[in-house]
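Design a sequence for this backbone.
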């Protein structure tokens, strides 16, 4: 039974830690492609602010087309929506959970809205323009984000079957009861093993361990068998809590190493804020803040 318990525990810990590693990789991919979308959109906004920068004739013609106030307004409108949906998606990564994300996919998916906004931007410029190529790369990043999200949600759904957890709890109780019965019958130590002693020749291992237990008890004024039972029970409880902690990959003592991911996400949000403020899109920035407040409220 002890061997079966050890095998179940080692398999459970290996599966759960593997799931955390996969989620870590998916989160890094998400933050990378979100950052690419924001950088591309900021580059388009900079082009709108600096129409005098291009020097070649081809680029001047392109800027003359983009210099139209109506076109500028449309680029700002749809571009600000792209940044807003990037912000909303980071809200999902920071404050959301698997259930909320599945619900958003059904009703108001940020990636779908982001894709629609980029498609509208593509219709505004000629296919051979520099901005159009940026929009194409944004579409590729959105497709990668959608695929990575499916993988991440699938990994988050991987959990230990309740039957395995019940078996481990039952085996833990069995181990503790076995210790009690064996120690009460003085059969806790193995009686088949024998060791050599210089003073008394061959001595049974059970006699030696009993002597060690009694010596420890006399020295520390403790019941050695009760102390061993407490240590055994404590370790079984630690293992059980460790497995429960690993089942929640985003919470607890053992969770995803969020340092790199968190820095990346907050860097993305800072870039979105600066881009919206530089283009005087304060109303969109206020809408992004309200979105974050709602995400915190319902998380």
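Sequence:
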């Amino acid at each position: 039974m002890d061997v079966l318990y050890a095998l179940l525990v080692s398999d459970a810990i290996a599966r759960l830690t593997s799931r955390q590693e996969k989620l870590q990789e998916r989160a890094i991919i998400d933050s990378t492609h979100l950052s690419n979308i924001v950088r591309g959109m900021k580059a388009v906004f900079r082009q709108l602010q600096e129409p005098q920068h291009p020097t070649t004739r081809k680029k001047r013609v392109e800027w003359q087309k983009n210099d139209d106030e109506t076109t500028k307004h449309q680029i700002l409108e749809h571009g600000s929506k792209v940044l807003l949906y990037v912000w909303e998606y980071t809200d999902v990564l920071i404050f959301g959970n698997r259930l909320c994300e599945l619900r958003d996919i059904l009703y108001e998916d940020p990636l779908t809205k982001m894709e629609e906004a980029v498609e509208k931007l593509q219709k505004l410029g000629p296919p051979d323009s520099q901005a159009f190529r940026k929009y194409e790369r944004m579409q590729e990043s959105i497709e990668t984000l959608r695929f990575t999200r499916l993988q991440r949600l699938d990994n988050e759904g991987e959990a230990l079957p309740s039957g395995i957890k019940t078996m481990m709890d039952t085996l833990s109780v069995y181990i503790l009861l076995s210790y009690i019965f064996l120690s009460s019958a003085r059969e806790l130590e193995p009686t088949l093993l024998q060791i050599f002693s210089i003073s008394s020749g061959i001595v049974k291992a059970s006699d030696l361990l009993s002597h060690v237990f009694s010596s420890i008890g006399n020295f520390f004024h403790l019941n050695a068998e009760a102390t061993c039972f407490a240590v055994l029970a404590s370790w079984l409880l630690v293992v059980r809590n460790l497995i429960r902690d690993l089942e929640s990959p985003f919470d607890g003592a053992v969770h995803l190493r969020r340092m790199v991911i968190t820095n990346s996400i907050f860097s993305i949000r800072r870039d979105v804020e600066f881009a919206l403020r530089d283009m005087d899109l304060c109303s969109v920035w206020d809408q992004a803040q309200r979105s974050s407040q709602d995400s915190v409220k319902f998380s």
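DSSP finds eleven helices and two strands in the chain.
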